[in-house]
Amino acid sequence: MTRARLSSQPLRHLQDRIATALITAGGIGVLLAVLGIGVFLLWEAAPLLLDEELGSLSMLTPLAWGTLKAALMALLFALPLALGAAAYSAFFMSPRLRSRIKPTLEMMEAIPGVVVGFIAGMVLAPWVERHLASTLVVIVWLPLSAGLAGMLWHLASRHWQRRLPLSWAALWLIPWLVAMGMLALWSTPLVEQALWGGDLRRYLYDAFGLDYMTRNALIVGLAMGFAVIPSVYSLAEDALNEVPRPLMEGAQALGASRWQAVIKVALAAAGPGLFSAVMIGAGRAVGETMIVLMASSNTALLSASPFEGMRTMAAAIAIELPEATVGGVTYRMLVLAALVLFLFTFFVNTLAEVVRQRLRRRYQRMGGGA
Amino acid sequence: MKYAAALGLAWLLLSLPPAGWAQPQGPSVSGTLGAVGSDTMAGLMLRWGEALTTRYPDINVQFQASGSASAPPALLAGTTRIGPMSRPMTDDERHAFVERYGYPPLELRVARDALIVIVHRHNPLPDISLDEVDAVFSSTQACGRAPIAHWETLAEGDTGPRGPIALHGRNITSGTYGVFRQRVLCDGDFRPKVSKHMGASAVVAAVGESYGAMGYSGYNHLTPSVRPLPLSNRQGRPVMPSDTTIQNGDYPLSRYLYIYVNLPPEAPLPPAERAFLNLVMSAEGQQITRAAGFVPLPMDTLEAQRAW
Amino acid sequence: MTWLKNALQQGVWPWLCAGSVALSLLMLGALLALLLTRGLGHFWPAALTEVTLNSGDVVAGEAVRDMPLPDQSGSERLYFTGNRDLDDARWRWVATDAIARQAQPENLLRLERRTWGDFIGYLEAVEVNGERFTGDDAWQQVQQALSLPTAQRARYQLTLRTPQGQTLRQSLATVISAEAPNAMHLGEKLGAWGSDVWQFLSQGPRAANTGGGVWPAIFGTMLMVIVMSVIVTPFGVLAAIYLNEIAHQGPLTRLVRVGVRNLAGVPSIVYGVFGLGVFVYGIGGSLDEWFFADALPSPTFGTGGLLWASLTLALLTLPVVIVATEEGLARIPDAQREGAVALGATRLEMLTRVVLPMATPAMLTGVILAVARAAGEVAPLMLVGVAKLAPQMPLDGEFPYLHLERKFMHLGYHLFDTAFHGEDVQAAIPLVYATALLLVLIVLVLNLTAILLRHHLRRQRGSEC
Which domain holds residue C158? Predict the structure, then answer.
């Protein structure tokens, strides 16, 4: 028995060494393959950059503009929602509710872009075109009505404040928002009649020369915002939740209200974390393909109007690359677009990651931490 | 009368055993049939494919339809042997093919189609001339008319939509885009504001939802949600697109639909491709053409093209 | 002023933030509710209405939706009327003011046919083997005959009458199904609904993707995802083990780790470009030249296909697996490793006997998350191998059984394609809803599994350590 074991000893070590070598080779191979994406894109796009056919690069300008416009619209819509939701669920929400709501909102991220794009392009866009005034009124009115609810709650008696506590407000507000949305939809035709002569689109055109396209930046913003909310929310919530509690408590002990503690202390402390959440959101918005493909009109316009469409780099790649002849100018152009997307998101994500790690160390120094 | 005739034909075909396009190879044909090309013809190709697989379950059918412009590169790169196109190949595309293979691709006319200019179903505009269409859609006005951007300029009177014309069209890779540009815009450029839709039915759906919209698409995508505009031909007489006017060429924007085949001179076609082309050229195949919304070709025109 | 400040700080701002949560939940709920009602509602046997217009015209069909007229003077209703072979159109818009009478006759039928799509009208007579049935007998004959195989059904000749009075003769062989929805009671409707849902899940698409089911797309998605996990799991785990257990933990490793993590944020379309350029054109093209030269110019691997799609998505989901596995590995206390080594185990034994079993659930979570991501991803597939219609599965009884070079159908792409490229969007929309619902359900279930697994794990681990 002992002899058998002894004789297998070198074998075991050999096995070990071979396995280690294999894992190392495999691991490094995989990492190289993954990092090779950048190399490939650079290699394929390089002739275009070296050929000094820079005139053809102007083709990318409207695409880059479209990409930025789409991402900005999405962030404009998503950031207030995501950050507000993060602040609420990190500081105000009851823990029991939070343990349910957070996974639910994170689940939003799993909804495939192609489904969101379909709903946006085929359902939302025609509806908004017919009810532009209602849409704008709802977009303005819903936040106001949530604030109004807060005001009413503040004015209400202690009894009601206890019956409808702030920590469950996210649930109380759902029926309230539905009712307020209905109210807005019902009353908009009157508003439209009074303010804009019964047809907002016509009014916008006559007064500001704004053209309206069925699938436009507004639709893309709403749809892509919907897709971006969960990732921003999740990261921002983590960052806020990790703010050391003693910091907040200290501020409140010094006489700050809860909201002041949130704004002045927590936001300042978690600022880098929020920044990295926003960066991740921007990265996602820039690279999202299917939503833009289905919800924008794919017109390579250089316009800032929210009612006109755009063409983004990702959408252009998806449409045109299969048809482009390998090695041709269009092919290289599209690969270059992919390279730009790659570099941009890589840069943004790295920045976010570095900032996040800094933040974590800072929290640890503060003596708190999650 | 037309219905009765078509019906009779349909009934005859449907009641016969499905041997309308008898096979030299006998009943068991297998293999992979790939086709890359026109999006306009996608529905037609799919229906032909369905008929083919109903008859020969062993044939593996694979279609990719992202636009006619995708067919020549695919034929050239060898990713497919069958390229459906809604426009004839350009000289450059043909030349590139000959350079690569040493023989020209086989060109088959398989159906007739037309480009239609559509407006919302309640739009009262009576008709439109080709020059006006160019003035509406083009930014270069290569045909020489002053640009038209508003309904007020296009239609006199008080009825109908007002304000800017919302334009809908196809994306750059589609054959419809190319043909429209060549035949209507006199090779000019589209206005940048023309929404570029992924498919012709998306154009129809968008125009059907929007009162002030105008768009172009293929005849087969016509639905009651939109109204095709009669187009003035060279004699200045507006012609409504219909099976008859498209068939006899009275409608100015009628065109053939093509299938390009990579057929080396001496080599036989693989059985799957052969079975497919036999189906397309048969009466049953042309009946499917009608079901897909296109205008079938007379049988003698089809027979004259057989080269395999 | 202080009052306002107080109101803002205690009431308005916190409630505004709560409003963001409520609004996000509301949007999510609205999306899911829309998908559920439209997706499942499509299969419900809809009532058929026969409408007589003021002009005397008769229209029969299913009311689809109402729209206001452009001049706001009333509304109009869209009917699905079928009978494309007779009317040249399947749809009809009717101004609601022009409707004189509406009825829902019980003998109004809806036949699903090959080639021409649905027929809506009345059954006059059935002829079989020289016998002629009319009225209720005819309807019973048709219902019985529909369970026969297609070849035998050809003996039955139907005489149909459209609501406008035209007659039409049709062989039963071309009829796929028949129903009289107005005569159905609730139980029958439920039954019909169930069988329609089943058909949707189990059959291939028909009539240029505007009818039938999505089975090939479900199968294609599943197979692609399985092939992908087979590729991604070993490599992902290998890379994670290397990074966490073997590599020297210096700044370089940290850099690589950040890099890998960031690749998860690189847009999927970029991976598609890589897949097209390297796998399809590069490797696939060379494979064809070396091994399949006799098949050229028809490409074998030099075109998008199952293998390339799976590889591309494997690359795309690699960071997910690496990160999840690494997390699991990092959670294992060093004491476990040191204990194993102290007892004389080599590194390999320590890894396979101690570390890996403990990290298995984390790996599993990673793979499930990868699968969930891959199942919903469409953009890269458009470049590397989905097809509009590939009724033949990439897996069949023909050697070598698994055809990695074949193109395949994918639920997400099928959705995109039918919604935008189809022949008639209006006709395809209900199916698109159903497909979207299915896709969302698959992805959500996968994600839920991963979340529950991780949750379960953390709790278990918590009690252990």
Answer: 109-183
Q: Is the dihedral of CA C316, C321, C324, C330 positive or negative?
A: negative
Could you list the residue range(s) of the whole structural domain that residue A6 is in?
A: 1-52
What is the spatial distance between Cα A333 and Cα A320, in angstroms, rounded to a whole number?
10
Query: Count of CB atoms within 10 A of residue A181's CB?
Result: 18
Smallest CA-to-CA distance from A68 within A319, A313, A339 is with A313
Q: HSE (CB half, 13 Å, CA atoms) of C31?
A: 25
Give the neighbours of chain C: at least 3 Cβ pairs within 8 Å.
A, B
The Cα–Cα gap between C447 and B117 comes to 47
Residues C292-348: tens digit of each pLDDT: 776 555 566 777 788 899 999 998 998 889 988 888 888 888 888 888 888 888 888
Instruction: Report if residue C235 sits inside a domain.
Output: yes
| Beta bridge mates, C175 | C113
The residue among A126, A125, A139, A360 whose CA lies nearest residue A244 is A360
- One fold for B17-112+255-303 and B114-254: yes
Interface contact C412-A112, CB threshold 8 A:
yes
Query: Cβ contacts (< 8 Å) between C206 and chain B: which residues?
Result: 50
- C-alpha distances in Å from residue C90, one per residue of A120, C226, C278, C384, C427: 26, 40, 46, 36, 9
Residue C27 has pLDDT above 90, yes or no: yes
Return d(Cα C74, Cα A354) in angstroms, integer: 61
Position C397 in a domain:
yes
Chain segment A102-134, per-residue pLDDT in tens:
888 888 888 999 999 999 988 899 899 888 888
SS3 C419: helix
The answer for residues whose C-beta is within 8 angstroms of residue A41's C-beta and 6 or more apart is: A335, A338, A339, A342, C270, C273, C274
- Strand, helix or coil for residue C360: helix
Burial zone of A37 (CB within 10 Å; 0-12 exposed, 13-18 middle, 19+ buried): buried
**Rg of chain B taking only CA atoms, in angstroms:** 20
Which parts of chain B sit beneath pLDDT 50? 1-25
CA angle C20, C24, C29 (to 5 degrees): 145
Terminal-to-terminal C-alpha distance of chain C: 55
Question: What is the CATH class of B17-112+255-303?
Answer: alpha beta
- ipTM of this predicted complex? 0.89
- Of C79, C103, C127, the one marking the end of a domain is C103
Q: Within an 8 Å CB–CB cutoff, is residue B207 touching chain A?
A: no
Which pLDDT tens digit goes with each residue over A161-200?
Answer: 888 888 888 888 999 999 999 999 998 888 888 888 777 8
Phi-psi region of A298 (alpha: psi -120 to 50; beta: other; left: phi over 0): left
User: Element (H or E) spanning C460, and its range?
Assistant: helix C425-464
Q: Do C284 and C143 fall within a single domain?
A: no
CATH 1.20.1250.20 fits B114-254, yes or no: no
- Chain A residues closer than 8 Å to C22 by CB: 146, 169-171, 173-174, 176-177
How much is the pLDDT for B8? 44
- Looking at residue A78, its pLDDT comes to 94
The nearest alpha carbon in chain B to A210 belongs to: B164
Residue A124 lies inside a defined structural domain of this protein:
yes
Tell me how far apart the alpha carbons of residues A59 and A57 are, in angstroms, rounded to a whole number: 5
| One domain for residues A354 and A308 | yes
Distance (Å, whole) CA C426 – CA B226: 12
pLDDT for position C137: 84
Q: Domain boundary at A9, A36, A52, which?
A: A52
Q: How far is A314 from chain B (nearest CA, A)?
A: 15
**Number of structural domains in chain A:** 2
Average pLDDT value for chain C: 84
pLDDT tens digits, residue range C50-87? 999 988 888 888 888 888 888 778 889 999 888 888 87
